[in-house]
């Protein structure tokens, strides 16, 4: 990863949370807040990717393929990288058996410390037709988890119409997130801490219930009749929990009695 890429990534992560006047003690609190906000935003984006179809901006088969695989947040990054491929120009092409090597010049616009800069970069991409492996010297896939504009440009040049499945990491697959939510018998402790994560898990589980219950009218009627009872139990439990929390807070804030 280049210095500009690393700087851009760090500034984006802390944008809106940390300023030049932030103290060290404040930084720790702001860091936790940025992690939680990022986590919740990702969960909401994942839910959106299941409910709605991504907007395609080109007729590229790569874009259509990625839209059906990636979570919405990752697809947006992939889509941006695909579109930026228009700024790539081949400088050198060499074919040696199953291997094709391309030297690409790319015109890229980056922001460094709030300043927009137009840069020209040179990268070398190698594609092996036999193993269906593509590598780029920018190392975007290794650092970011998705193919760079240079690699996608090379694949298109070589006539590849479908990105090899190994370049879609499981972490960013919306279908895997859905299966994990259904199949996991134990909810991870870190997922219990965030309301958005709890909400996502419940949605996944309830979607499976809805799929099964909608198959037959009798099952549908049974579930429909049970929903008000489930909601009533949740509301009653929520009320009891709220009273318990208020009692604990009252005891904690009560002044100590002196003898």
UniProtKB/TrEMBL annotation:
The keyword Endoplasmic reticulum is assigned to this record: no
An MF annotation (GO) of this entry: zinc ion binding
Keyword Zinc-finger in record: yes
Principal subcellular localization: nucleus
GO biological process: regulation of DNA-templated transcription
Keywords for this protein: Metal-binding, Nucleus, Zinc, Zinc-finger
Domain SWIM-type, residue spans: 123-159
Family note: Belongs to the FHY3/FAR1 family.
Known role: Putative transcription activator involved in regulating light control of development.
Protein name: Protein FAR1-RELATED SEQUENCE
């Amino acid at each position: 990863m280049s210095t500009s890429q690393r700087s851009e990534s760090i500034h984006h992560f802390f944008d809106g949370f940390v300023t030049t006047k932030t103290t060290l003690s404040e930084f720790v609190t702001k860091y936790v807040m940025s992690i939680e906000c990022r986590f919740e935003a990702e969960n909401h984006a994942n839910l959106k990717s299941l409910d709605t179809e991504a907007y395609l901006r080109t007729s590229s088969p790569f874009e259509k393929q990625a839209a059906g695989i990636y979570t919405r947040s990752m697809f947006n990054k992939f889509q941006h990288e695909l579109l930026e491929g228009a700024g790539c120009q081949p400088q050198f092409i060499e074919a040696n058996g199953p291997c094709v090597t391309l030297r690409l010049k790319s015109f890229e616009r980056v922001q460094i410390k709030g300043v927009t800069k137009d840069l020209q970069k040179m990268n070398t991409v190698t594609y092996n037709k036999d193993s269906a492996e593509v590598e780029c010297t920018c190392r975007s896939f290794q650092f970011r988890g998705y193919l760079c504009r240079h690699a996608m440009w090379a694949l298109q040049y070589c006539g590849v119409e479908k990105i090899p499945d190994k370049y879609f990491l499981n972490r960013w697959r919306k279908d895997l997130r859905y299966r994990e939510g259904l199949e996991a018998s134990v909810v991870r402790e870190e997922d219990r801490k965030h309301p958005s994560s709890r909400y996502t898990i419940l949605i996944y589980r309830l979607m499976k219930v809805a799929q099964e219950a909608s198959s037959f009218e009798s099952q549908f009627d049974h579930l429909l009749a049970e929903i008000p009872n489930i909601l009533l139990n949740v509301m009653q439990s929520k009320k009891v929990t709220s009273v318990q929390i208020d009692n604990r807070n009252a005891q904690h804030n009560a002044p100590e009695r002196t003898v």
